[in-house]
Amino acid sequence: MNAELAATLAAERIGSDFRHSPKTVANAPNRHAAASGIVIVEIIVGISARDIIGSVVQHRTEPGSIYAIAGPTASGKTALGVDLALRIGGEVINCDSVQIYQGIQIATAKPTIDEMRGVPHHLIGYVDPNVNYTAADWAADAAAKIREIESRGRVPILVGGTGFYLRTLKQPLFDSPKTDERLRERFRKIHSEKGAEYLYRMLSRVDPAAAAGLPPKDHVRVIRALEVFFQTGQRISEIRPQRADPPEFANRIVTYVLNPPRAILYDLIDRRTEHHFGAGLVDEVKQLRASGVKDSTNALGAHAYRRVCEYLRGERTLAEAIEKSQQDVRNYAKRQSTWFRTQAPDAIFISPDAAAMKFSQSYHAGLRQNIRDFLLTLNK
User: Mind listing the domains of the chain with CATH numbers?
Assistant: First the structure.
């Protein structure tokens, strides 16, 4: 670690102790909450498996269930998925839109060989970072992998925080054209030079119905809608309802969303981001760029990676890159939690007891054990 990075991380660590200090929160009862018309079953995880079993909302899964462990980044999904797989004879299928890429390692928190603990993991690190891999691509690959795992008498366990991937698996998208990279690059240039609102006005002229359903600053989805129109001559708002039928296993997927207290989650995110920079993230990005991976790809557009690219282009200092990465990931975690609460009506939310949360490996290991034990009781 060079002197600049060491000094920057030290300063960030001091600051993070004050930015997101967790507050003790009294135990909350189990509850059914309504949000946007969606009933959310929320389970407050206590200190012991007995507490969990005695206080859960009654819920049972059918034999042959496919588990999905979801939730915001840094909430413990990876370790819980491995724990569950070891107990029930399962195999993990990655459901994270960045962990799919080859060579994108440090800031994606891909599980190491040791962390996998002998559990087979699928759909991790298998896509070239220059390829624009879509949710529909992942859903097709995941469906094939689920069928293969079940054919061997094993249990598929989907693990990751990309809710849109999970929804696309259960509710397939319409048949859209493959990305025209030259066309996309033209739209990216327009975005860079004229801004997201200009692209939005373009979409409003060619497909007002699609524009009405998108925020003006959501340039990613606006660009995709423009691509569909200019590639096919059809409006995405008109062809979107033409969805394929759900896969035969869709109604067997049971989704559990980890929902740790926000203040504690943010502190974990800040510390983990510092660790990524200290573990060689800058050098990893340098190597990726040297190998031909462009800054404009989805891979290097991921959280932390794009801020490192800005740092390497001289657009911000290293300290700013770290702080901005932390902010990006905190904001992303908030969006993930909101997405699952509003877009996953059948999900079961599992919240740790805030008063018991501590920053210790032994505690988190115990918490994963408790949640794993709870999940296993649902299938009895």
Answer: 3-20+33-173+244-274+321-377 (3.40.50.300), 181-239 (1.10.20.140)
